[in-house]
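Q: Here's a chain of 216 amino acids. Please give me its 3D structure as tokens.
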Amino acid sequence: MNETAPAPVRQFARLALPSLVAALNHVLDQHPAARERLRMFGERRLRLGVEPHGGWGLVPDLWLAIDADGRLAPAEPGEAGVQMLLRPSPQAGFDWLRDGARGLSGHMRIEGDVMLAATLGELMQSVRWDGEEDLSRFVGDIAARRIAEGSRAARSLVANAGERLYRQLGGFIESGESPLARSAELDELRERAAAMAQRLDAVARRAGERGTSEAR
């Protein structure tokens, strides 16, 4: 794991890794063809991390290994067959909320073994958790379908609303394209306003002096 991360964060990541692996394997078990494709890369290690921009350098790396059955297992750091690094951004969060792992695929930098990297990139696009199937075991097919559709609609609604808000506010500020972000333009505007105020004051004084002279 990333040794620059604080010790409590690394410890938490170690504790959470088995649950993450179990969740990923559950998804793979729903897609036997995906497991079959991963079998050829048995014993290869994967490094999952976040590109170290800003405070993201404190996020620990996660190491996984592909076993002979095409499933995943926690692994110790070492030589990585492939590195999958997320480029964090608000847009990545909106895309993940809307489309899950598929939404993150466009924000991932995958490096290493060409064939394994290509396979992982394709699987991120095609493999997704079938939550409807899991729910159907407890509530039945019809209710599971309605719950799944409602969940997808809610996630999409939240993601779209957040994205619009970000673009209108935060995106403008960070892009440098908004007047809110252009300090030079703001300074110029202030200078013009001050100059206009001075001209108005001069006009008012001249008008006052003219009125005084006429009164005399």
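Q: Can you summarize the key feature?
A: The radius of gyration is 28 Å.
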